[in-house]
Amino acid sequence: MNLDPEMMEIAKVFFEECKEGLDVMESGLLNLDASADRETINTIFRAAHSIKGGAATFGFAEVANFTHGVETLLDEMRNGKRAITPEGTQVLLQGCDCLREMMAATEEGRALDQARIEALNREIGEILAAPGVHAAAAAASEPPSTAGPAADERAAAGAQAAAPASAGVGAGWRIRFEPVPALLKLRNEPTRMFAELARLGELTVRADLGAVPALADIDPESCYLAWDLELRGEVSKSALDEIFDWVDPACRLTFMPFGPQDAAPAVAAPPPAAIAAPAAAPVAAATPAPRPVPAAPAPVAAPAQIAARAPVVTPAPVAVSAPAAAAAPAAAKASAEAGSIRVATEKVDHMINLVGELVITQSMLNRFADGVEPEDLERLRQGLAQLARNTRDLQESVMQVRMMPISFAFNRFPRLVHDLSRKLGKKVDLRLTGEGTELDKTVLEKISDPLVHLVRNSLDHGIETPERRLAVGKPESGLLELAAFHEGGNIIIEVRDDGGGLNKAKILAKARDRGLVDPNQELGEDQIHNLIFMPGFSTADQISDVSGRGVGMDVVRRNINDLGGQVQITSREGHGSVIRIRLPLTLAILDGQLVRVGSETYVISLLAIVETIQVRKDQLSTIAGRTELFRLREEYIPVIKLHEMFDVSGGRQATEDGLLVVVEADGKRVGLLVNDLLAQQQVVVKSLEKNFRQVRGLAGATILGDGTVALIIDVPGLIDRNSADELRAGAARAARSERRAVRAA
């Protein structure tokens, strides 16, 4: 963007508002059908109009030009001149996608995808060129001989003659509008604004031709007209401001109210001579609804005819303003992560109040800087307790600033379900619940992609086709539900569907065919369900652009584990599936259990801990001379000695001498051998990778109250590391046995 620094700051706000406007447009279009109420399409139109006007204000001509075509199609739909069809709605949805790409490219200074823009402009132009609702009705009722310009003039005259001779007495406004010559270049057509005014009351428009130059001096892209308008009806000033919202500030625009003493003049059709004559005096005409102008050149029209038309719908492409050196590939994907957060004023006010409390507490404690007398000890304790309370409250308040409703992640799914169900030939109803549930911005950004995989999986593998659903006695439309809620200090996200559920026999057979499961291994129901999260696993019989390559679900589990969360799946064959994700509210602060291993302190996430057990010797057994197993009721789990894993001196050598912390990740349970359990507390997570290399089994570090550093255990990584170590140890033992056998032979 070639803008000065001050305008750059304003433009950033504009881009944020454009993203919100496009979300509004997309949401409205997904709910748009022939039975939609008028307010729905008005909301969509207003969003498009705001984007176009803002783009023109900042000089983003290509964005304004493209939005102009989208706005024109929406205008005809809301005026009832063109029917709302699934095809038209789909083109408008593609227009939203294109506008997102254009805004991202404009913001980053990249070249626009001209081929995509021109293709969509052609599609919109073809829809606009087709006969609309009124044109089709007229063609069906009138003989062909009535078509042509003469018919248009007769229709206009008839509409004017049908107007009442006197509109009576009422309140209203006199409006003087003198635009800048560049009005049309900024894609602000006065006819569109006049049509909006006509919806508010009875409108009379008089064009002022005083500034029109000789024909040889006319610039076809400049506006030389001014207008005097009279609007009768109970209309508020704010309604007028909204219509003229995007008019250039250099335009002269005045509103003058008039009262009941001003009688409405009679509206009569001017004689044909008055319409055609190039008189310098203002021409009075009632403003009919705008209609598209044919793309072919037309003769110069009188002002009354100009006011009844809208400009050409498909604009010519404009050269890319971004420098070639800064251009990136047109297909580059814009980052989904927002660089800013909108914070409610109440949250900021609360933080400011807490900072004020901290300042007061600091002043109180400053009294003890030079020493503490015995009689002051109680006041010192009170001051420290107050400082602790204020610090805790401030911490919670700061964390609330990063909390955002999960609707930011959920809002993408109506469009995804709409497009994918059309592609798959399925009927799906999407239900969103708990959209106001808040979680940390970082978690919100990282959970979006896993949710997309889960939703696509439910649509492709879970929900059946309408024919199959009817055959088994289900409604032809499947139900897909995304739900979010808080539970035990964590956030739970569930993806539910009422489809066919998981076919356990097919999953197990596929896993055995691909060597993911031993042919003789017996698996429980939960273990079979969890096979879908294994790398390279898929039950799809054919590879498509939706699924079938065996990637996605393993990535889902890995990404959720990286967030410190867990994913579980339950399913009933023939009735549907539920995928349940448990996540921490924030990644910056962890609810942890402190444990001592030798001389070191470690932190284990409470989310991963199942239980803690004092070990008895009769519960232990050893296999292969190395791996130690602990019998936990009906299950045997491996024991990981943390002092061996992390090479810590002073750890418990014998398992029965220590405590076993049972943890779970990816459906696997292990026991972590520790010396002692310490306190449970919230800890601030600090990354190790900025200063040290990544260590498998460690997620970061934190600083405790006494200033010592405690390492935070990454439970999924620790389990994977232990499995890999056991495989290597087993391979080494097998190699040694083979060498001994060779020597013995």
Which features would summarize this protein structure in a list?
6-stranded mixed sheet, alpha+beta, 5-stranded antiparallel sheet, 5 domains, 745 residues, Four Helix Bundle (Hemerythrin (Met), subunit A), Alpha-Beta Plaits
Write the layout of secondary structure elements.
Layout: H1 5-30, H2 38-57, H3 61-78, H4 86-108, H5 114-129, H6 133-141, H7 149-161, E1 172-178, H8 190-200, E2 202-208, E3 226-232, H9 237-243, E4 252-258, H10 272-276, E5 283-286, H11 303-307, H12 345-366, H13 377-402, E6 403-405, H14 407-410, H15 413-424, E7 427-433, E8 438-440, H16 441-462, H17 466-471, E9 477-487, E10 490-497, H18 504-513, H19 525-529, H20 553-562, E11 566-572, E12 576-584, E13 589-597, E14 600-605, E15 609-614, E16 620-623, E17 627-632, E18 635-641, H21 642-645, E19 659-665, E20 668-674, E21 676-684, E22 698-703, E23 709-713, H22 715-744
Parallel strand pairs: 7-9, 14-23, 18-20
Antiparallel strand pairs: 1-3, 1-4, 2-3, 2-5, 6-8, 9-10, 10-12, 11-12, 13-14, 13-21, 15-19, 16-17, 17-18, 19-20, 22-23
Helix pairs in contact: 1-2, 1-4, 2-3, 3-4, 3-5, 4-5, 12-13, 15-16, 16-20
Kindly summarize this structure in a few lines:
This protein is an alpha+beta fold. Helices cover about 40% and strands about 20% of the residues.
